[in-house]
Amino acid sequence: MGCRLSVGRSACLLGAALLAAGSHASIAANDEPAAAERAAVGVIFADHARYLAGVAVAHEHGEGVAREPARAAALYCESARLGNVDAMYALGWMYANGRGLERNDAYAGTLFAMAAFFGHPQADQMRRYTGDYVGAVPDCLQPPPDESLDPGWSAEAHIAALSAQRKQLARLVVDLSAEYAISPRLALAIALTESNLDADVVSPKNAMGVMQLIPDTAARFNVRKPFDPEDNIRGGLAYLRWLLAYFRGDIAMAAAGYNAGEHAVDRYRGVPPYAETQAYVARILAFMQRRKHAYDSRITEPSPVAPALQLVSERGGGS
Known about the structure:
Radius of gyration: 21 Å
CATH topology of the largest domain: Lysozyme
Structural class: mainly alpha
Helix content: 55-70%
Order of helices and strands: HHHHHHHHHHHHHHH
Strand content: under 5%
CATH architecture of the largest domain: Orthogonal Bundle
Low-confidence stretches: 1-30
Distance between the termini: 20 Å
Largest sheet: none
Number of strands: 0
Number of helices: 15
CATH class of the largest domain: Mainly Alpha
């Protein structure tokens, strides 16, 4: 929630409570009282973000308080994390002009891209001077890191109940996951959800094998023998690694991309409104019990809507 920023303990605690409330409300998406609660939480988010942006303006210009550009930047950043478009633009402007912060056109480009995505009228024009979003995100906008590969979680506890053949495939998934820097827990979640560890299954859409690779994906990741378990699993893990990089470690978006394709996630700016994909993502998240995963940014450029997807994810949406 960014409580390391100079916003004040009460604002941090309120923001953390709001994020928790938004995440809780998202569980019952089809329940009318829950929908009303989500709407109310959204209003509170917006009001608090607007308040922070107002205080930031005062500190930036010295209006009734001491002029403190660094404090203004911290407040703008916290407001931006809560979805305030004016704060995204204002912080981008500070980075673009080196006002109270070291000039950083890459950070400014990210913030202007975020603001433009949400309809800020001047943001697109500013991007002409700073450049487009290239994956650089200010530290204050980063979610709390979750880089662990599930310490204390045992794959054996999940493998033990499987049949002998599926045990063998599950262990292959877990063993190969390390080569692709993917949590064995996530790799196993995908394999179980895709095929229940059946190396011979073919779906109505011609998705093949353990990781249910369609022909285009198999070709894209150099899978020559899609019904060979190791070749198939390697292809699926390579695609999953790519998706994690593309969606900057967001497990929900990566899972949605695996099921429906990354272009569908980009088009809908979140988990697509397909019943199958939504159920798929819910199952993966229930298995994982977290939303973030380490990723290698060198693998691919980020999704063009990655900044907006991060906001959706942190506010408990998109799943």
